[in-house]
Design goal:
The protein is α/β, with parallel strands linked by helices and 201 residues long. It has a single domain, classed as Hexapeptide repeat proteins (UDP N-Acetylglucosamine Acyltransferase, domain 1). The chain contains two helices and 20 strands. GO terms for molecular function: transferase activity.
């Protein structure tokens, strides 16, 4: 659902995928290979929103701002399910965990990992490559090279998703029983805990 508002029409790169159950309004610019999931609300009514190339904004996220503010997600920023970004700036290749809240004028540095349910208060500036958790947010350690590689791999899956959605996604009627030749899905990325237990960090 793409809506004009007050003379602004969203700009969406042709390689991006915006789910039809997402809502994109007004002064919004969405770059190449961006994925926007169902239920996301990206509302550029009082200010602007720039989502640079390779970002993903997952299901039920909200991006908004106070009047006159521009929210920017720098290239390859990864916004987890249910997160809220209000008037903030998210650095390149940063990860915002599920249901985290990033408040006005906060800056999350490049390569940061913000934990699930974390609350980053107004005006907090997080240097690059920091792990941040808690309510209120607290910097607990640096992002290691292994952790950043893991995050980047996860984001690359989302960067491939728009093309896959355009190629195979369609509305269908459900099956009534499981077919005998139903395909399996491979584990192309382990979660961070399993990766650490595997001895790679």
């Amino acid at each position: 659902m793409i809506y004009a508002f007050d003379g602004f029409i969203p700009v969406v790169h042709e390689s991006a995928f915006v789910h039809p159950q997402a809502s994109v309004t007004g002064n919004v610019i969405i770059g190449a290979d961006v994925y926007v999931g169902p239920g996301a609300a990206i509302r550029g009514d009082w200010g602007g929103i720039v989502i640079e190339d390779g970002c993903n904004v997952q299901e039920n996220c909200t991006i908004h701002m106070f009047p006159g503010v521009v929210v920017r997600l720098e290239a390859s920023a990864h916004i987890g399910h249910g997160a809220i970004v209000h008037g903030a700036r998210i650095g390149a290749n940063a990860l915002i965990g599920m249901n985290a809240v990033i408040m006005d004028n906060a800056v999350v540095g490049a390569g940061c990992v913000v934990g699930a349910l974390c609350f980053v208060p107004t005006g907090m500036e997080i240097p690059p490559r920091k792990v941040v958790v808690g309510n209120p947010a607290k910097i607990v350690k640096d992002v290691t090279d292994d952790m950043l590689d893991w995050k980047t791999s996860g984001t690359q899956l989302y960067q491939q998703l728009p093309a896959a959605m355009r190629a195979t996604w369609r509305e269908v009627e459900p099956l009534r029983e499981i077919p005998v030749d139903r395909p399996t899905q491979s584990s192309v990325l382990k979660n961070w805990k399993d990766t650490r237990e595997g001895g790679t960090t």
